[in-house]
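The following record pairs a protein chain with its ligand, zinc ion.
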Amino acid sequence: MSLVSVEQMLRKAYEEGYAVGQFNINNLEWTKAILLTAEEMRSPVILGVSEGAAKYMCGYKVVAEMVKAMIESLNITVPVALHTDHGSYEGAFKAIEAGFTSIMFDGSHYPIEENIAKTKELVALTKKHGLSIEAEVGAIGGEEDGVIGGGEIADPEDCKRIADLGVTILAAGIGNIHGKYPENWGGLNFPVLQKINEITKGVPLVLHGGTGIPADMIRKAISMGVAKINVNTECQLVFAAATRRYIEEGKDLQGKGFDPRKLLAPGVEAIKNAVREKIQLFGSANKA
Ligand SMILES: [Zn+2]
């Protein structure tokens, strides 16, 4: 199956009350692990690519070509969307040109009027190409590619103004943060989420910072219109832990244990397990 936008897969998820995971990719191993797991579980999937990760992988074009070729060579039949993560205004044009099927424009750090103006322009651009667009209101806390967000709570009225521009999906800060959650984290702000869902009725919502949010909060958020949940840090943590274990056990020193195909295998398996768990929790298994 060729790459698709997130429009149909998230409309269905929103209406049927489950969420599709966005799993960020960093290299070939990440991509392969996520695609194979989504296929195994018959789940639609969104591959997220931050500007930093795209740069690391030598640009959007390399990423898009790798993903397309991998879908074909691995015989992936579930719907896959290739989406930018916290993309810039300029980045949107580059990603679309390279073959991405969905973009996120994060204008949350601009004053609301500028966020609206830029989002509006990119809505028109994506519509023209039959692609989907995620907009953001209210910065999400923590660090993403060097951008530190304060973890604002989005203003539901601002959310409505952005939603009314015709965005496909909307990310709103509701106390969620990127990276690991601190011990004293106050949890998701459900009254605000409910208000946003009511006021933007019909626009599937996105929850960023899906690593470490307790399962009951995830389920509750899905029941309030969240149809896409971003997972990035979790795959990095389990990959690093599994790789560390392999080396600490001295396995890289046994036989050909230094072969990258062996050295990286436990980390890849760990990513598969983490993705499997999230797909189960989000309820997207067998929804392809
Ligand atoms: Zn994010």
